[in-house]
Amino acid sequence: MVLLLAAGCGTQRAGVAPGASLSSGPTPVGTPVAAPSAPADFPCPGESSAPPAPTAATGSGPDASPPDHYAENHAFRIPLRLHGQSRCDGLAAEGRVKGALEPLRRRGDFTPGHVHGALTGLGYPAGKVRTYQNGPTVVGFLIDIGASPWCVEGMLNSGSTTAEAFGGYPDGTGCEPPRGGH
Fold this sequence. Notes:
By secondary structure, this protein is α+β, with helices and mostly antiparallel strands. It is 20% helix and 14% strand.
């Protein structure tokens, strides 16, 4: 004897007409449906205009090759962008960090200890500032601000001083990139 069980995996609910809403009650015609709100960005002090909109990745069309899923598989390592007042606070922190490190760059002082000292001199706790040598004229740094939460990461080299504030990582709990993936 063969027993056939049907699972309820269709799109039609018993007692509901095709195309009818499955919600608990009718939605009046013309009622706007709430959409998820995007974080509000506004010009921060010192900016000349509104922040640039994020750009979408291209690669579609008849001649586009299939995606290799690298970006999808490594998205957990992409830092979270700051928005609103946190973005403005992050831009201010970037400016302070660059201002503190630029004299070292101009002098050619690429010593992790001196970079660490300049950053702790801004008031960041010594245990929250990590510096590392990356060649004879490159020092990288990472500051765990601990508020919001956000972080500042950058590099000092013979050609420039960079600093970028971000809001941690999607799958992480701090400023260090998470390990692993899915």
